């Protein structure tokens, strides 16, 4: 499955993307914001592509002007999500390489995946979260219509072995439809 926006192609990850993934995923600021440890090698990035990024509805974010992936966005369902979900709900996670922050690409990708979740997956609500201090992620979510729902304080985050505070936001299909009509 591929999704296309004005400036982006959202497509499945390929094993040949390992070098590009490693180039951005080794950056400590990316991993910390997304909730995982920086990648230590291209081989680790290849393993992540094979074992994690091969999940359904996981997309490489490829700017058309660049031609290579510089981030990732996915919808998680059921037990794969970080928050409890009803059967007709999903949770979106995302990250973008540091050189591409502040260009509006993540908001564009998030809007496309939200539309996909509601129109093609039939979801009624989509959740998204960010860790305390990740103001960029909060801003992207709010630009796309997500609203604050609750806080999870002092949770043990297994991928990093740290205790975190996570702010959980959501958007309903009705709210997304209303936002699209106003745009």
From TrEMBL:
Q: Which domain of life is it from?
A: Bacteria
A cellular component term, taken from the record's GO annotations = cytoplasm
- Give start and end of each N-acetyltransferase domain: 8-167
Instruction: Please indicate if the UniProt record lists Acyltransferase as a keyword.
Output: yes
Write out the GO MF terms: protein-N-terminal-alanine acetyltransferase activity
Q: Which residues form a coiled coil?
A: none
Provide this UniProt record's keywords sorted from A to Z: Acyltransferase, Transferase
Q: Which family does it belong to?
A: Belongs to the acetyltransferase family. RimJ subfamily.
What name does UniProt use for this protein? GNAT family N-acetyltransferase
Which organism is the protein's source? Candidatus Avitreponema avistercoris
